[in-house]
From TrEMBL:
Transmembrane segments: none annotated. GO terms for molecular function: rRNA binding. SMART domains: Brix (SM00879). Residues 344-353 have a biased composition (Polar residues). GO terms for biological process: ribosomal large subunit assembly; rRNA processing. Residues 1-12, 317-326 have a biased composition (Basic residues). Residues 357-369 have a biased composition (Acidic residues). GO terms for cellular component: preribosome, large subunit precursor. InterPro entries: Brix, PPAN-like. This is Brix domain-containing protein. Residues 327-341 have a biased composition (Basic and acidic residues). The lineage of its organism: Eukaryota, Metazoa, Ecdysozoa, Arthropoda, Chelicerata.
Length: 369
């Protein structure tokens, strides 16, 4: 007997994605050139940070160029390119806005991979649903909006992640956060990635264990429930738990949280567990286009207004020359095509004339012969 044909589900073909999903910023995280094993793993870790709006299994071939990813970006709703490169001196991180730029080039001063961060933690926090929702972005120290570089840095990092409406956000959808701290003295950016966990405040360790259900305390020496609550050891807290009840870590929950023990309009403590990777970045250059165009900022090279204007004029002349050559090439191709068509029609007409012979004239010529 033959196999049964499975019925296709209705609506499986041609189903449109929700508007919130299509309008969310998407990204490609790629590498260019030989970057080595560690930077390649750092690229994979950075993809995980930007989940779920990034391509985790994106394959990069040797013959692929940046233009290939830019051309397919619009059809896939991709708005940003994150490019890792490496030179003998250092590794670099480029953030590109698709399709017209700008491009921000950061020097990776130092970095720590995700596996190294988690191995240093006593209790790493990783579960299946942690990366199914986009992270919350927290910027610290990005002041001085009057400077062009600060404006571009702030807008670039903000637009890479979906925006959040504070009045309508569901707290259960915020499970991770990205912290970017800018040090104005050293002009370095510290990149950190954390998991967010909310715990109730004012509960003993015994009650907390009962609520969480992860580990049941030993009640062998207790005769009654009151013995559990009256036990002084039950209310002692470890050093880490004592930090949680500090005033600067406590919040009053405005809505219900899915974790156990947290109640609406009650105080809870926020705990951050680092997920990795860690990066220390230094802004080196800002370009107007995608890895090309006018240099809006450079940390090493300073130019006067006259020099900048001269470079701008040369760039405009180069662009004008490029387009004029392209226009001339199109005209040459058109002229050759017209000449080819004219030659073809002329050959067809000559063939037609050789075939058109008057039969009476042919008969007279035969009789004369």
């Amino acid at each position: 007997m033959g196999r049964r044909k499975r019925k296709s589900k209705k609506g499986s073909k041609g189903a449109e994605e929700p508007e919130a999903l299509t309008k969310a910023p998407h990204s490609f995280v790629i590498k260019r050139g030989k970057v080595g094993k560690n930077v390649n793993e750092l690229m994979v870790n950075f993809r995980q940070v930007l989940e779920p709006f990034t391509a985790m299994s994106l394959k990069i071939k040797r013959y692929n160029v940046v233009k290939d990813f830019v051309h397919i970006a619009s059809s896939l709703n991709v708005t940003h390119l994150v490019i890792f490169t490496k030179t003998p001196k250092a590794a670099y991180l480029r953030l590109c806005r698709v399709p017209r730029g700008p491009t921000l080039t950061f020097k990776v001063v130092n970095y720590t991979l995700t596996k190294d961060v988690r191995s240093a933690l006593k209790r790493p926090l990783v579960y299946s649903g942690l990366f199914q929702l986009s992270p919350l972005l927290v910027l610290n120290g990005f002041t001085g909006d009057e400077e062009l570089r600060m404006k571009l840095m702030t807008s670039m990092w903000r637009n890479m992640l979906p925006s959040i409406d504070v009045n309508k956000v569901n707290l259960n959808t915020i499970r991770r956060c990205i912290l970017l701290n800018y040090n104005s003295d050293t002009q370095l950016i510290d990149f950190r990635h954390f998991a967010i966990k909310v715990k109730p405040v004012g509960l003993s360790r015994t009650v907390r264990k009962l609520i969480s259900g992860k580990k049941i305390p030993d009640f062998g020496n207790c005769n009654d429930v009151t013995d559990i609550m009256a036990n002084d050891n039950a209310f002692t807290e470890s050093e880490g738990e004592a930090d949680e009840v500090e005033a600067n870590r406590q919040i009053t929950l405005p809505q219900k949280i899915s974790s156990r023990g947290n109640m609406v309009n009650e105080k809870s403590a926020i705990r951050l567990t680092e997920l990795g990777p860690r990066l220390t970045l230094e802004l080196m250059k800002i370009e107007d286009g995608i890895m090309a165009g006018e240099v809006l900022f450079h940390s090493l090279i300073k130019k006067t207004k006259a020099e900048a204007q001269e470079l701008k004029d040369k760039r405009q002349q180069k662009i004008h020359l490029k387009y004029s050559r392209k226009r001339q090439q199109e005209l040459n191709v058109k002229r050759k095509q017209e000449a080819r068509n004219k030659q073809k029609t002329g050959s067809n007409s000559s063939d037609g004339q050789s075939m058109d012979v008057d039969p009476e004239a042919a008969a007279d010529s035969d009789s004369n012969e």
